């Protein structure tokens, strides 16, 4: 059974790497462009039974604790559109793209993998952005526009390529900070990475037993 672990940085999955679990590893680099290119290129080289993107994320939602691990059910590109007079229109709203054109479902890149329902890990909606910002109004706008729980810089790219290539996939994230908080002393990097890798190892073990 061939499994590919995808991460933006080695730091995010360092504990997993130290376990030397039998799985291929792909470090894409940070951002939508790098994630899209390197993941798509990897899938041209080899057919995988499952791809798992693992990483940290910021949360918009105070119901999630720092360090908490979540699965992403749906993701989308939050800052791809046209902004005029302080209002953002997505490419779907402008009519340039139909919100149900494959691989989108109502404007979202949705993962229907049954494994999402076979764990005690919360399932969330995410947005993916090109730019992280501490501007409160912009972050509040993104939260309200998309009703998202978390934010990353690679998730939607991973969903997009996986759906296009018709590969089974999962995106697992651990909350390291609240969106907009740039004071790193208020982040929980160590706990988030520790919990992420613990759940990642458990997920690999469970999947191989199916």
Could you please describe the fold and organization of this structure?
It is built from 6 helices and 10 strands. It is of the alpha/beta class and 210 residues long. It has a single domain, classed as Rossmann fold. A 5-stranded mixed barrel has the order 3-9-8-4-10. Strands 5-6 form a two-stranded antiparallel sheet. The termini are close together.
Q: How many structural domains in the coordinates?
A: 1
Strand arrangement in the largest pleated sheet: 3-9-8-4-10
Structural class call reads: alpha/beta
Report the radius of gyration as a whole number of Å: 16 Å
The counted number of beta strands is 10
> Separation of termini?
11 Å
Note the beta-strand portion.
Answer: 25-35%
| Coarse shape | globular
Overall mean pLDDT stands at: 92
Outline the low-pLDDT stretches: none
CATH class: Alpha Beta
**How large is the count of helical segments?**
6
CATH topology: Rossmann fold
- Taken in chain order, the helices and strands follow as EHEHEEEEHEEHEHEH
The biggest sheet, with number of strands, parallel, antiparallel or mixed sense and barrel status, is: 5 strands, mixed, barrel
Main attributes of the structure:
5-stranded mixed β-barrel, single chain, alpha/beta, two-stranded antiparallel sheet, 6 helices, about 210 residues, Rossmann fold
Question: What's a concise summary of this model?
Answer:
The chain is α/β, with parallel strands linked by helices and 210 residues long.
């Amino acid at each position: 059974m061939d499994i590919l672990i995808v991460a933006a940085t080695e730091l995010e999955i360092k504990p997993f790497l130290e376990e030397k679990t039998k799985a291929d590893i792909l470090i894409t680099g940070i951002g939508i462009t790098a994630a899209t290119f390197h993941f798509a290129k990897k899938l041209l080289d080899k057919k995988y039974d499952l791809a798992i993107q693992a990483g940290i994320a910021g949360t918009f939602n105070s119901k999630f604790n720092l360090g908490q691990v979540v699965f992403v059910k749906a993701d989308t590109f939050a800052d791809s559109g046209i902004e005029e007079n302080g209002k953002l229109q997505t490419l779907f709203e402008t009519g340039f793209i139909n919100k149900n054109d494959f691989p989108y479902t109502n404007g979202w890149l949705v993962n229907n993998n049954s494994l999402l329902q076979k764990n005690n890990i919360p399932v969330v909606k995410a947005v993916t952005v090109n730019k992280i910002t501490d501007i409160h109004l912009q972050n509040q706008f993104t939260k309200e526009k998309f009703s998202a729980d978390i934010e990353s810089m690679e998730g939607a790219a991973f969903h997009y390529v996986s759906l296009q290539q018709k590969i089974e996939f999962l995106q697992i994230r651990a909350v390291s900070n609240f969106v907009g908080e740039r004071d790193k002393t208020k982040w929980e990097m160590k706990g988030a990475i520790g919990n992420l890798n613990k759940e990642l190892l458990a997920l690999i073990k469970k999947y191989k037993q199916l």
